Structures are given as C-alpha cells and as structure tokens.
Amino acid sequence: QVQLVESGGGLVQAGGSLRLSCAASGSINSIRDMAWYRQAPGNQRELVASITNTGSTNYADSVKGRFTISRDNAKNTVYLQMNSLKPEDTAVYYCNIKAPSTLTIRSYWGQGTQVTVSS
C-alpha cells in the first residue's frame, strides 16, 4: 500500500556526483521527517541526512559540505545531492520517511540503492 521507490544510484569515480531520489506513494497521509541512511558491508546502518517538514536539515559530520538533502512535498519526494564523492561513501543508501498514523508515528523504508565510488 505504501511504496518508496529509490533511484539514482550507480558507479562513479572519486570526486564525482550523484543525485538520489525517493518517491513515496500509496495510502499515506502527511509526511513529517524524511531522511537518507546508508549501510556499508560490515557496518551498521547510519543516518546520513534528514529534513523535517519545516525544512530544517541535519547531516552526518562525514558528509557535511558535500551532500545536500531536499524535499518536494507536492511530489512526496526526497532527494540527496552527493558531490565530491569519496570511496568511503560506498554503501547501500536507503530513504526513510516518518508519517503520523491515528495512534503513532510510522516509519517506511525504500528498497535501497547501491552507490559505488571508485578510487
């Protein structure tokens, strides 16, 4: 019923750029927080960037100055512009949205998209 479809991942050389997109659809009401996480082999899933419904953003220290998160509420879409990519950015990237239900806040995840940065 609720689908998060990610796109934009791929292979890029160090110093290059990629733009990830995640579009939400289905039986969902208002969306509060939107975020991007990533998980590299052997590592825990970590928060990369988040954006609230008021536009306030937060970034992991490792990506500050290089990544930019944005959202288009009319399209229920969150983006992650990634510049100056480094090999250590290689991971599977997952989008996440949080939306209120009648009783609680529900969390939804995208399927993940692979980002590989060659050195």
Largest sheet: 7 strands, mixed
Range of helix content: under 10%
Say how many strands there are. Answer: 11
Distance separating the two termini:
40 Å
Instruction: Give the SSE string.
Output: EEEEEEEEEEE
Strand content: over 45%
Average pLDDT level = 95
Uncertain regions spanning at least 5 consecutive residues: none
Cα-based radius of gyration, to the nearest Å: 14 Å
- Summing up helix and strand content along with how strands pair, one would put the structural category as mainly beta
Please tally the helical runs, counting DSSP H or I stretches of 4 or more residues.
Answer: 0
Q: Which term fits the overall shape? A: elongated
Describe this structure in words.
The protein has 119 residues and is mainly beta. 0% of the residues lie in helices and 56% in strands. The chain is built from no helices and 11 strands. It has strands at 2-7, 10-13, 18-26, 34-39, 46-51, 57-59, 67-72, 77-82, 91-100, 105-109, 113-118. Strands 2, 4, 5, 6, 9, 10 and 11 form a 7-stranded mixed sheet that branches.
